[in-house]
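@channel anyone free to eyeball this complex?
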Amino acid sequence: MQNKRVIAAMSGGVDSSAAAYMLAEQGYEVIGVTMKLRECSETEESPSCCGVDGILKASATCAKLGIRHYVYDCVKEFEEMILRPAWDEYSQGRTPSPCLNCNEKVKFGLLMKFADELDADYIATGHYSRTFTDENGVTCLMRGLDANKDQSYFLAGLSREQLKRVLFPLGEMTKPQVREYARIHDIPSAETPDSQDACLVGAYGSFSEMLRHRFGGTALKGDVVDGKGIKIAPHEGIHRFTVGQRRGLNLNTHKTYWVKGISGNTVTVTDDSATLFESGLTADGMVTVYEYPVGESVRCQAQVRYRQKPVDASYTYLGDGRGRVDFIEPVSAIAPGQAVVLFDGERVLGRGRIITSF
Amino acid sequence: MIYFDNNATTPLAKEVKDEMASCFDIFGNPSSLHVEGQRSRQVIDTARKRVADFIGARPEEIVFTGSGTEADNIAVTGYALSEPDGAIITTAIEHSAVLKPVCRLEESGRTVIKLLPDGDGEINAKDSASAIRSLNKGLLTIMMANNETGVIQPIKELAAVAKEQGLLVHTDAVQAAGKIPLNVDELGVDMLSISAHKFHGPKGIGALYIRGGVKVSPVHLGGTQEHAMRPGTENILAIAGLGKACELAGQHLCDSRLRDMFEEMILASVPDSFVNGKDALRVPNTSNIGFKGLENQAIVINLDLENIAASTGAACSAAKKEASHVLTAMCMSSAEARSSVRFSFSRYNTEEEIVQAVAKIGEVVGRMRKRLAK
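replying in thread with the prediction:
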């Protein structure tokens, strides 16, 4: 029988390189693919997940393995499916989850299409996640064993169909083990520092400012006010603020403030971080592994940003892709636009986009 | 590997390799007076004669360059440097080695006219004549054969009109050399670029023919090598290789037998396939084929996985997914352009390879369409 063909997404970093290496060792027919998300001319200071350096490292790893390597041009798709919608969110005072969308639509979405075109059985990545198929044949995402590197939050948008064809060779490993593996096998990126999923910040200092320049957007300027509606300072655009933000508010005061909410062109701040805690949220664009009847509540744990300890909650499907999450203990800084991800222990149950909090 | 990407580059001919190998110990600086220098000078002179013979020129009219791209750049930019108010007339389907220097001149305010091809990829000589006649000072630069479609442009006719107007004429013959006979006098051109690796010579060496008496300023400044048109110590090995490749090409101009066989078999056996530029005069080794509904990048990768080398277009832009500027200038929809794959043959390909490749292409295209239909 012919070996199963796998498209290995390779950023050039140590994780994806090690993942491809392992699969090749296991006897898969591995084809290395580096997704090119931006033009080479857009050089940035900081290393990121999609640079030219990555292409070279991925190519070197493939050459060492004696497997083929291709660069898959996704520049236009990345621009239209990820960056532009991200700006739309910022311009309305919401905080997008571009990495989550990028995984769902570009990294896995387009790669799956590519895998179809190349008649591949699987796609593989170097994410620290696992999949699990239950007794009914339903495949869902599971957290990786290395809790420090677990990226399930960013992968929560993947569909059941996508997950069925995904291999995560690093899901059972820890980062130090992966580095050790890479050293033993003399993988070219064995010593490459960890990249951040932070593309394209460049000279503008922040992701949202970069987007505004890129799409010629207008900054919606206005005032920063306190809880009583008293003006503290003017601001340079609502896209610069995120609920829960403390740094870089430029309020010209020694007092500490946190962003409490953004409405119209007004940014409301508070000097009492306790008021940032809220007991629930509503979300749209809910996608869940299992179907839940409208109005019925299920126990789960929820996470409203990447680095957050999941908290006990109850989820209620409201119909039309909308849902409501009630936390058992209040949660701080729930930012509209960010993803809410639901877990059942290690298992990812689903995700949606936060619209309001209460 | 079945190698059908000879417009990207070609394997080195054994004779060329031997010629180059025989020069490995010739190290003298060709500009030196001593005998070591003279030996190197000999190698260069022999090669220069061979190149000149290949295109019907005199040896002193040949300038060795580092590539076809460099030859094109010297022609365009060198002309512009010597004629500050001369216009440039070119086409929309040139290689970027011509298009980019022309665009830079346009950005700095120079008059530039870009001619458009017809649906078969040919620049129509009659329609272009009036554009050429609108100028009385300038450079006409038109490629001899297009790298993507292989379509041969009517250089002779266009050059004749340009001459009447007192224009200089340059042709980028990089994709024509070794495929069709070239004679600078018959064509009536003042400058002509070639590149060795497109016809079984080494990479990193090209030549620019500059007709005696034609005034072009050097782009790089330095020593007096190559009549100061291309300063820098000569790349003797590569120059020897180019000379030999020209001599060989003069003896083995390729014919269209393999290409015709390939196209006939593809059209007969692969549904919804079409040949770009089919009704135009083409170089005999190039076939540009569209497979409706599919993306060329995926086709080329699938073929690579089956050990068949083809291309999505110019190798220089193969990593880009955008539709080819050549095919879109031919008024093809971008979907049609993006479905097109270039196959280019050489005298080292065989009928057996054609038969094998056509069968594999049919399989790959069929499988891709089936998967898409799901």
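from a first look: Chain B touches chain A at residues 295, 297-298, 301-302, 304-305, 319-322, 367-368, 371-372, 374 (CB under 8 Å).
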